[in-house]
């Protein structure tokens, strides 16, 4: 059933008066972040096989230990933004996110995904992070598919994501059903 849902389409309003046929709950806008998965080379004539998937439990809850979230971001090499936030700021980020998904190996936080949304028209994948020791086995894909599916079941059919402008990121998002857009991304920061 999940495969068929990934192929369905809806009309999403993109700009004033303009409508394009876009995949349901899947869009990709170049310009933000997401780390690429790596496959492990095995013996054989250039064959590539994924690492064995560890027993990781996915949960949907905003009640996550802020220190565990900050530690996960630091372990992935993030030194700015969430990794530098105070625990109070991370708790606020969690409370105000529309959807928060976590991946746990026993009691260790190894994956995190969150989205912001208006609850009706569209959503934005705000963060997607997988611990370096757990990359390359489909955990990021599982988190992103669960996030998109949950948003779609809640009636949010357009989902945007920001990622770096490299081939690995494009490949990752396309594999999960997102499509690049030729839009400009504008940012206004106040400090």
Q: Rg from C-alpha positions?
A: 17 Å
Work out the helicity level: 25-40%
* Poorly predicted runs of 5 or more residues: 1-43
Total strand segments: 10
- The overall average pLDDT, rounded, is 77
Strand content: 25-35%
Broad shape: globular
Spatial ordering of strands, largest sheet: 3-10-9-8-7-6
Molecular structure report:
The chain has helices at residues 2-7, 66-75, 87-96, 139-153, 167-175, and strands at residues 9-15, 18-23, 29-30, 40-41, 48-49, 57-60, 99-105, 108-117, 122-130, 158-163. The chain has 191 residues and is an alpha+beta fold. A 6-stranded mixed sheet has the order 3-10-9-8-7-6. A two-stranded antiparallel ribbon has the order 1-2. It has a two-stranded antiparallel ribbon with strand order 4-5. β4 and β5 form a beta hairpin. The radius of gyration is 17 Å and the shape is globular.
Protein topology:
Elements: H1 2-7, E1 9-15, E2 18-23, E3 29-30, E4 40-41, E5 48-49, E6 57-60, H2 66-75, H3 87-96, E7 99-105, E8 108-117, E9 122-130, H4 139-153, E10 158-163, H5 167-175
Parallel strand pairs: 3-10, 9-10
Antiparallel strand pairs: 1-2, 4-5, 6-7, 7-8, 8-9
Helix pairs in contact: 2-3
Structural key phrases:
191 residues, alpha+beta, 5 helices, 10 strands, 26% helix
Outline:
The protein is an alpha+beta fold. It has helices at residues 2-7, 66-75, 87-96, 139-153, 167-175, and strands at 9-15, 18-23, 29-30, 40-41, 48-49, 57-60, 99-105, 108-117, 122-130, 158-163.
């Amino acid at each position: 059933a999940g495969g068929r849902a990934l192929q369905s389409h809806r009309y999403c309003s993109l700009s004033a008066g303009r409508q394009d046929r876009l995949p349901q709950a899947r869009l990709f806008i170049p310009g933000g972040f997401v780390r690429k998965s790596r496959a492990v080379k095995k013996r054989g004539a250039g064959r590539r096989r994924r690492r064995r998937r560890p027993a990781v439990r996915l949960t949907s809850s905003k009640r996550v230990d802020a220190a565990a979230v900050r530690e996960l971001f630091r372990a992935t090499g993030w030194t700015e933004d969430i990794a530098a936030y105070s625990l109070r700021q991370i708790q606020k980020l969690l409370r105000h996110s529309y959807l928060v998904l976590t991946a746990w190996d026993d009691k260790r936080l190894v994956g995190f995904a969150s989205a912001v949304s208006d609850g009706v028209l569209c959503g934005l994948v705000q963060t997607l992070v997988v611990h370096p020791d757990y990359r390359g086995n489909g955990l990021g894909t599982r988190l992103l598919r669960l996030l998109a599916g949950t948003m779609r079941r809640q009636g949010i059919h357009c989902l945007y994501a920001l990622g770096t402008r490299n081939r690995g990121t494009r490949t990752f998002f396309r594999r999960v059903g997102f499509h690049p857009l030729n839009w400009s991304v504008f940012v206004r920061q106040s400090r």
